[in-house]
Every structure is written in C-alpha cells, then in structure tokens.
Design a protein that fits this description.
This protein is α+β, with helices and mostly antiparallel strands. The chain contains 8 helices and 14 strands. Strand 3 and strand 4 form a beta hairpin.
C-alpha cells in the first residue's frame, strides 16, 4: 500500500499518515505489519478496500468484489463498504450479478442486458416498477402472467389470465391498456397471503390450486402451485411456529391485493 501512495510523489511522513488512516477506516489499524497469510478472507478484502481508497480517489470502481466470499462474510462486507462510502463521500460504481446485493448497495441501479441499458433508477423503483419483463424476471423472484384486458373501471383494470382467473390490477398509469389488449402482469411471490388464514376480502385477487412443490426456507415457506387450468404460481408465505404449512398435493387458496400487481407489458 505504501508503494501505491509513494508512486504519487508524496513525502514519507504523509505516506505513513495516509496508510494509517486507510487501515483505521477499515478497522485494521493494529494489523499493519501482518502478512496476507495471517489475515482472514474478510480482513484481506478490507485491505483491498484500503489500497483502493488510500489516495482518496473521486470515483471507486468495484467489480464483483465479494464474489469469492461466503454468504455471511459477503453480507458483512456489504455493510462495511456502505459505511466507508458514506464516511468518505465517495462515488462508487459497483458491478455485480447478485440482484439482492445491487439493491442493498446502491442509491441508483442500472440494469444491462446484451449490452443495452434496460432501466436506471433507485432500487425501490427497479424492484417495484420494472420497465419490462426482463427486469421483472431478473431482479428478484417474480410471477409473470400473460392475459388480456377484460374491462376498465376508473383506476383499476380487470385482466383475464391465461390458465387462470380474472384479476384486478392498477391501471391509472396505463392508458394503452385498453379492453382486448394483450398484457403481462407481474406479482412477486412474497406479496401473496394465505386466504385460509386472512380470509378473502373483495380487494384480494384469488388463485386456487394444488401444491406441486413446497420448501421450508426459514423465514418463509416457498410453494409452487398448479391451478386446474394449468397456471403455475410461485408463492412465499411467512413462516413461524404457528404457521399453517402445506405439503405436495394439498389444496391451497392464495391471494394478493390488486395494488401488489404490476402491468409490465402491453402489446
């Protein structure tokens, strides 16, 4: 690290000061004399960050910096890099194929596909209002249903899904979604609720079917539901000690509020 700063023509005293500050920023102040083999994987990643920031750049480029780390260490480093960015007021271009990491680390996200920019915006906008089916499928888990518009009523549209029921979706910002138009609708698996538990108020879209697959993943139970008409639906329901769990072959009624659906394409 000292060689990197020395190449910029700094005095010895300033070099030592800069190196010390950089190590303190990544919480390695007492480890300056250690060899790389004496550091853990996370500590080595911190040293890499210190090397990159020791000469106080205006822009930091991080290209898949956590790719070789296990999940727990990866999440720890995400938080540490975020703190370092804020402390230094440092603009960072962060390249990752991990969609969750992109949402956690970013103020703005740019999604690229086949060399073309698909959408740029805050993480919340990218996740909740994807510009097209590619982004809806790429960022997080999604159900993407094909169907056609049956009716318009104020700010709500009625759409008949292929192999499924008629559902209500927001339509205020979709003037092109006229009756008869083909559309694609996105619903995130986490937006579903178990209607056997919460009931089925009029504002909830209902999908009935049989559980084809189920998996317990800690904070939630993950299901793949098949309807009688052949619609495949992915659902995640909150899991807890008193939660109702379903096994393959059991009948389940799942629902989602109209506001949690998104029109992502109008043909």
């Amino acid at each position: 690290m000292q060689d990197r700063v020395a190449m910029r023509g700094m005095r010895k005293g300033e070099i030592a000061e800069r190196v010390g500050e950089a190590l303190e920023m990544v919480e390695l102040g007492g480890m300056a004399e250690r060899l790389p083999k004496q550091l853990s994987g996370g500590q080595q990643q911190r040293v890499a960050l210190a090397r990159a920031t020791v000469f106080r750049p205006r822009l930091l480029l991080l290209d898949e910096p956590f790719g070789a780390l296990d999940r727990k260490l990866r999440e720890q480093m995400q938080l540490e890099v975020g703190r370092l960015q804020r402390r230094l007021g440092l603009t960072t271009l962060f390249i990752t194929h991990d969609q969750e990491e992109a949402l956690i680390m970013s103020d703005r996200v740019a999604v690229l596909a086949k060399g073309r920019l698909q959408q740029v915006g805050p993480p919340l906008e990218i996740y909740e209002a994807p510009a097209n089916p590619f982004i809806a499928d790429f960022i997080g888990e999604s159900n993407i249903f094909s169907g056609s518009i049956e009716a318009r009523g104020g700010e709500v549209l009625s759409a008949r899904l292929e192999g499924g029921p008629s559902i209500q979706v927001p339509g205020r910002a979709e003037p092109a979604a006229r009756v008869g138009k083909r559309v694609r609708v996105m619903v995130r698996p986490k937006r579903f609720v178990d209607l056997a538990v919460v009931g089925a108020p009029a504002t909830v879209n209902r999908i009935d079917g049989l559980v084809a697959e189920s998996a317990y993943i800690g904070v939630s139970d993950k299901y793949r539901i098949s309807t009688a008409a052949g619609l495949d639906v992915r659902v995640r329901l909150p899991s807890g000690p008193s939660s109702r769990r379903y096994g393959p072959g059991e009948r389940i009624a799942a629902g989602f509020h109209a506001a949690d659906a998104r029109l992502i394409e109008v043909e």
